[in-house]
Amino acid sequence: MSPFVFNTTKSIQFGAGSLSRLGELALGTMGNRVFLVTDAGMVATGIVDQALTHLKAAGVEVTLFSDVQADPPEAVILAAAETANSAGVDGVIGLGGGSSLDVAKLVALLAVGKEELKSVYGVGNAKGPRLPLILVPTTSGTGSEVTPISIVTTGSSEKMGVVSPVLLPDIALLDPELTYGLPAHVTAATGIDAMVHAIEAYASASANNNPLSRTLATQALELMGPALLRAVQNAKDADARADMLLGSMLAGQAFANSPVAAVHALAYPLGGHLHIPHGLSNALVLPHVLRFNAVTAHHAYVDLAPHLFPDLASLEGQERVAAFCDRLAALSADCGLPQTLRDMKITEDWLPKLASDAMNQTRLLVNNPRPVTEADALAIYTAAF
User: Fold this and answer.
1) What share of the chain is helix, strand, coil (3-state, %, to 5)?
2) What are the extents of the domains in the chain?
3) Looking at the domain 184-384, which fold is it?
4) pLDDT digits over 117-130, tens only?
5) Which of 61, 213, 225, 318 could form a cystine bridge with 254, CB 3.0-4.6 A?
6) How many alpha carbons lie under 13 Å from residue 330 in its C-beta half-sphere?
């Protein structure tokens, strides 16, 4: 067996209603002055007020930052870090979707004042220390609560990553009840995103692709496969919501250690240029990337297919792989997601620019099981058009 490294969050606390423990966890982990990172949409749901109530009941003083944007730009991260530093907080809590959690990770790092954002882009450049950190996801998609990754929008459209074990939080607090209010389209897109994490982690060409990640990926798909459509159709299906949140986290642990590849590389330009939500961007290109990869990732997809769609066990070889790609596209459609770039009002003249920019995602493309050229990327976007 090849050597590998597997890192994950130190403590994972899962359960319906577990947000009520946030105050005691914060007090025990970081002290009585915390910086709470979230976004305006989360404030509007009332969930932030619930968190503030639990924190204040425990005697924790809170500085609230609610200016996180989707695909957070550098300016938002720097403003948040400066505010946290000025407030002299003891720790950071991220509450929300992947963008809020990603910002919270970087605030915990930068508020210490020993590193600058521009110097930590890339893999292993963030050294720490950081402030104590608790992450509370409210979507079942990114798995950010168990990943050492933060994604930042630099300039006008390009996305760059900060990847370092230092960014893993001290506690991931997962409360399925926080996901009950998600609209159907967000549930669908974030759920497909989590499935992509599991699929790409399992088939990753990374030298660190490892048996733990592969086991977690298959378990994640077994949980999410039967649950996604149920969660989309009934927002308060408690079992489906719990399975989606746990599956998303397991997929996060998988890809945190066996990194994602071309699906994400081709999704990022769609978000950066055209502001398509990340999960939906993944869903739009997913079946087309898998069909492209099937030439070299055939065995991985044959293995994975029955974990997500058990009835595909009756098929073999290339027939199973083709059905796997088709069923993923059908699942996306059944969930009500747009199926083509054209559906998103993208014009065909965008495709060469998207393909060119996807080539900048070298951190991701190196993990793809089949090399991707710019011409390949253009062909994939054209198929998705």
Assistant:
1) 60, 10, 30
2) 11-178, 184-384
3) Dehydroquinate synthase-like, alpha domain (1.20.1090)
4) 999 999 999 999 99
5) 213
6) 9
